[in-house]
Amino acid sequence: MIIVPEAAIAGLVSPEASFAAVEAVFAAMSRGDARNFPVVREALPGPEEALYGFKGGVDAVGGALGLKAGGYWPHNLERRNLINHQSTVFLFDPATGKPTAMVGGNLLTALRTAAASAVSIAHLSRPDSKVLGMIGAGHQSAFQMRAAVRQRGFEKVVGWNYHPEMLSRLSDTAAELGLPFEAVDLPTLGAQADVIISITSSQAPSLMDAHVRPGTHIACMGTDTKGKQEVEAALLARARVFTDEVAQSVTIGEAQHAVGQGLIAEGDVGELGAVINGDNPGRISADDITLFDGTGVGLQDLAVASSVVERAIEAGVALDVDF
Ligand code: NAD
Fold first, then answer.
1. Rounded-to-integer distance, Cα 97 and Cα 3, Å
2. Model pTM?
3. Residues contacting residue 266 through CB under 8 Å, at least 6 positions apart
4. Which of 139, 185, 236, 314 could form a disulfide with 258 if both were Cys (CB 3.0 to 4.6 A apart)?
5. What pLDDT score was predicted for residue 265?
6. Of 18, 83, 140, which is best to mutate to test ligand 1, by the most ligand atoms within 8 angstroms of its C-beta?
């Protein structure tokens, strides 16, 4: 069994490889070659108030079988100086059931989530997109910005965050990427941005329907649980809506609200994988608003972890344990 510790991941994973792995697995899901298993998410008893769970799946063609185990320990940072999100990916040989790899999952989660919105930008945004709008300035936001700017010739980043004191993360990341950054209010962000990424833990909409102009692509990446919401439900009724997995989108994703309010039906939510495969036209006109509801699936983790294992073996840094 190959072990790739968390500390080795940064040197082994490239944005190109994460993008390719996530794009391929979305396409496989849409063809019916890969499927995610039901997600388990449980509150643990005790003073840590932790949430723990499993996200797994199988990709019959890509050869991936496994799960990501982990969750959220809200007191890790203050009590132990450890990050609050902790996860590990386990891969198995689909032919025998033998474990093949154990891979640190913390950095991988940020990279595969950023790769998902980047894949949506590559397939759904207008090719002439120039301004990137960022809503959210938490841990994920820097990864999102770095992956997004590889897809279009962005010339400027505009950003808004509920907690303005966190905006330095966005300005620092834009500077690292050589792009000008401007902190703006939400109406200005909507008026300027060609592509908007929203990645917050909000429980109420920040981006409203009236903020968004025709032709915009929006990647809603923060809503992955019942009750969370980042954009007004009416925006989904005006947009062509796509997702990683329809069942998750309408229950725990951004579409839960528009579907719950009867503004759109489950059948109005398309798969990004179908766009990748050419089975769905995706954006039809330059004036379409496209919206990607990125809920996060286990197969993304397995795909990116598999690519890390390959790189670790090639680079001669994989720890091989007789298990
Ligand atoms: P974080 O805790 O580092 O940052 C949270 C962000 O949400 C900050 O920008 C904060 O200002 C903002 N926020 C908090 N309360 C808000 C409110 N009431 N209104 C508007 N904004 C508010 O978190 P993170 O690691 O950056 O993750 C952000 C979100 O993305 C979380 O909800 C997380 O669960 C989700 N996530 C989704 C996926 C996926 O695959 N879709 C993967 C990883 C994380």
1. 17
2. 0.96
3. 246, 250, 259
4. 236
5. 98
6. 140
